[in-house]
Q: What sequence folds into this?
């Protein structure tokens, strides 16, 4: 079973929830799809044994064949190629590795080359896997795609997504069985939760909600969920103790049987929903 | 007009709250929200939308069924798995690269512009505000960010400052938000995640040669990590321009759509005023030197 944890708004507790789930359900695989800012390693402290570069294909121009006709630059929808002073210039960071320029080049001057944009890191038994985008690289999707080649199929998989609701999140969600939406009871949290709900509904995934930093006497999220008929699967209270433990890299489930039991209960609820 | 972008690496550290608070202190400025897939600043600004536009920031292949020979060469050429067995374009997969249009022997495929979001220019009592909303799951968030910044420049009316609320992360949205800006302010928090993400986002600022400043929010939550952040900044040439204490009343204020300044939190207000004093002074000297 593959469970994706997302939120819309950043900092609502995706990593707390996904790492806690992974730390309680054993064996399971934790996969950090927030390749721009992966944080799960801080809490799960894996012993990284495998480091696999993420390479993407880029075009390489054979200048002895190139006629500087400009067809490649015209074909590239991402403006990653330009002809300047009779020379084809590639802007590798914005290349989408689509191969259109190879087709457009009539003399056949384009050959494939490679460059590294990130890395996949895993522990020995691959119960921990993370992608890391290199500094200055804009395009995260190929790193997530590569990371997802290492999903285990024999144990539950928890995917920790990035904030937002753009293509990186869509890529992370693909193929998952359930989406867990983590939110907080502020106007910001609710606003972005609605965006995340629209996304999972549009993609057709079953989903449920975790309210983090929940306060008594505040029903902002509950009211919305009631109206929309969305199930609230867990509430984590707004406690300075939890925040303090988090700051130092400790999860609520670590050394706390009561919280571990609640996350097992959360997992059982999700299992029930998926098997329905 | 000088552009300052508020980023953080990690989400939820307080970017929007700080920008909304600064909007009550800084004179003669414009505002922009470049967190286009989960924008929040408008919630605290309460403006009136003066201009709304559809934004076409991507392309998608369209197959003409009458011309299609069902030869399958397009499906074999597409690197994104965007063409299905029965020659339909798979939603969310097509990146609009046009490789299929070039390879199709029947000329049955062409590209069409796709709407990826909406842009807005609003009037608020704190200045003109440029913002946007990416369509659910859409491509091209970086391009939409560039459009938001362009819209701000198009509505400039002798303002001195543009305060830009950024997004979490370090990828295309953040790069599009900070390219060509005068300075970035990284809003951090003293957590292990916070410092890890701060280091990465400041490395991005350095990579693009943009001066970076740091503001530590909830600094008293974990004094050890606050010290680590200060040490890191010291060693790497980033100035810490402010430290805001952990104050649960800020959360209560936000629930009522109020900034800490609206809520009359005097110590927080004083700290934010101090941040602006330091920041504006620093940026004047830097941009002076750059020119």
A:
């Amino acid at each position: 079973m593959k469970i994706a944890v997302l939120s819309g708004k950043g900092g609502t507790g995706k990593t707390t929830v996904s790492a806690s789930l992974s730390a309680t359900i054993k064996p399971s695989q934790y996969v950090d799809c927030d390749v721009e800012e992966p944080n799960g390693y801080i809490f799960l402290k894996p012993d990284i044994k495998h480091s696999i570069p993420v390479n993407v294909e880029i075009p390489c121009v054979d200048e002895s064949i190139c006629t500087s006709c400009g067809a490649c630059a015209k074909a590239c929808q991402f403006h990653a190629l330009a002809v300047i002073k009779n020379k084809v210039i590639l802007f590798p960071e914005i290349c989408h590795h689509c191969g259109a320029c190879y087709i457009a080049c009539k003399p056949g001057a384009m050959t494939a080359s490679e460059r590294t944009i990130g890395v996949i890191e895993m522990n020995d038994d691959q119960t921990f896997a993370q992608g890391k985008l290199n500094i200055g690289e804009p395009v995260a999707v190929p790193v997530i795609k590569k990371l997802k080649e290492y999903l285990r199929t024999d144990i539950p998989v928890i995917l920790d997504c990035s904030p937002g609701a753009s293509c990186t999140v869509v890529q992370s969600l693909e193929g998952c069985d359930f989406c867990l939406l983590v939110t907080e009871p502020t106007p910001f949290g609710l606003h972005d939760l609605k965006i995340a709900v629209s996304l999972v509904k549009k993609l057709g995934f079953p989903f449920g909600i975790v309210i983090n930093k929940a306060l008594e006497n505040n029903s902002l999220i509950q009211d919305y969920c009631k109206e929309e008929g969305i199930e609230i699967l867990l509430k984590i209270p707004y406690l300075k103790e939890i925040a303090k433990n988090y700051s130092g890299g400790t999860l609520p489930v670590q050394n706390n049987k009561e919280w571990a039991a609640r996350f097992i209960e959360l997992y059982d609820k999700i299992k029930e929903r998926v098997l329905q | 007009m000088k552009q300052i972008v508020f980023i953080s690496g990690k989400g939820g550290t307080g970017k929007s709250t700080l920008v909304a608070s600064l909007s009550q202190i800084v004179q003669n400025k414009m505002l922009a929200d470049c967190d286009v897939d989960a924008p929040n600043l408008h919630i605290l600004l309460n403006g009136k939308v003066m201009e709304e536009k559809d934004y076409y920031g991507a392309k998608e292949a369209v197959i003409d069924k009458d011309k299609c020979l069902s030869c399958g060469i397009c499906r074999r050429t597409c690197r994104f798995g965007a063409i299905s067995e029965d020659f339909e374009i798979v939603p969310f997969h097509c990146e609009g690269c046009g490789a299929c249009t070039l390879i199709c022997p029947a000329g049955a495929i062409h590209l069409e512009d796709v709407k990826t979001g909406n842009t807005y220019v609003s009037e608020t009592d704190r200045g003109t505000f440029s913002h946007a909303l990416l369509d659910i799951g859409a491509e091209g968030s970086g391009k939409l960010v560039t459009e938001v910044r362009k819209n701000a420049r198009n509505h400039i009316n002798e303002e001195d400052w543009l305060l830009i609320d950024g997004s979490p992360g370090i990828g295309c949205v953040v790069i599009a938000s900070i390219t060509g800006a005068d300075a970035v302010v990284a809003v951090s928090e003293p957590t292990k995640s916070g410092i890890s993400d701060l280091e990465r986002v400041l490395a991005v600022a350095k990579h693009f040669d943009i001066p970076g400043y740091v503001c530590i929010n909830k600094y008293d939550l974990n004094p050890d990590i606050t010290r680590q952040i200060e040490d890191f900044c010291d060693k790497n040439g980033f100035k810490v321009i402010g430290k805001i204490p952990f104050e649960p009343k800020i959360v209560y204020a936000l629930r009522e759509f109020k900034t800490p300044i609206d809520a009359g939190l005097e110590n927080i207000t004083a700290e934010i005023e101090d941040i602006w004093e330091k920041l504006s002074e620093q940026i004047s000297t830097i941009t002076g030197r750059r020119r």
